[in-house]
Amino acid sequence: MHHFSYKDTTYEVDEQGFLLNPKFWDSNFAEGMAKECGIESLTSEHWDAINHLREVYLSTGVCPTIFSLCKAIGLRPREMKALFPTGYHRGLCRIAGVHYLLYRLPDNSHALENTADLKALSGKKQYQVDVRGFLVDPDNWDPHYAMHRALEMKIPQGELTESHWRVIEYLRDVNKREKRIPTIYETCETCQLDLEQMEALFPDGYHRGALKIAGLRFVK
């Protein structure tokens, strides 16, 4: 367990600075975490995004995708990047006190996707995944895993096109070489996609879609 302090208030966070329990979020946390993300002060545009994200999470129990949030508040990708330069999840979601892997249970408690499970997806090979299907060991990934994951998602007929593979291969290449997950901004720019095209490729979202299919996840 880690702690983050701002203006005499201390919060419990994970290794990445995500608030462990969203109910302890307040504007003080947002202001302090914004500084950690390189944002000196939060403007009304920042707060529009923060408040909408929290409203969606509190009403549905799930972190909204960047696609749905941008559409809801009328932000273009460049505008989102300018507001939250460290990324959607590592910027906006962290400031708003909502982890993309966090979901609300029916009893209003919260859980993180960190429980290992074994699923056999093809033949005799087994892939160790967490409770939401993220591959635990990225080295265990193969194209067959990607195709099975695609079948479970909203990708038409589960068919991975050349554009899908370009994104998947970029994500895995960066992760292998630099031991990190690139932001959606980096991926769109490198793969020459705009946000609408990325959404069309991965309707479930960047993390719950593209990263999951690529066999990657954030490790706490």
**Biggest sheet overview:** 2 strands, antiparallel
Q: What is the helix fraction of residues, given as a range?
A: 40-55%
Physical arrangement of strands within the biggest beta sheet: 1-2
Output the structural class. alpha+beta
CATH superfamily of the largest domain: DsrC protein, C-terminal domain
- CATH topology of the largest domain, anyone? Arc Repressor Mutant, subunit A
Query: Total helix count?
Result: 10
Low-confidence stretches: 110-123
Distance between the termini: 10 Å
Strand segment tally:
6
Mean pLDDT: 84
> What is the CATH top level name of the largest domain?
Mainly Alpha
DSSP strand content:
5-15%
Overall number of domains: 2
Q: Identify the CATH architecture of the largest domain.
A: Orthogonal Bundle
Any idea what the shape is?
globular
| Rg result | 17 Å
The helix-strand sequence is EEHHHHHEEEEHHHHH
Structure description:
By secondary structure, the chain is an alpha+beta fold. The protein has two domains: 2-110, DsrC protein, C-terminal domain (Arc Repressor Mutant, subunit A, Orthogonal Bundle), CATH 1.10.10.370; 115-213, no CATH class. The chain has ten helices and six strands, in the order ββαααααββββααααα. It has helices at 27-36, 44-60, 66-73, 77-83, 88-96, 143-152, 162-178, 184-190, 195-201, 206-213, and strands at 2-6, 9-13, 102-104, 110-112, 116-122, 125-130. The chain has a two-stranded antiparallel sheet. Strand 1 (2-6) and strand 2 (9-13) form a beta hairpin. The longest helix is centred in the first third of the chain and has 17 residues, at 44-60. It starts with a strand and ends in a 7-residue tail after the last helix.
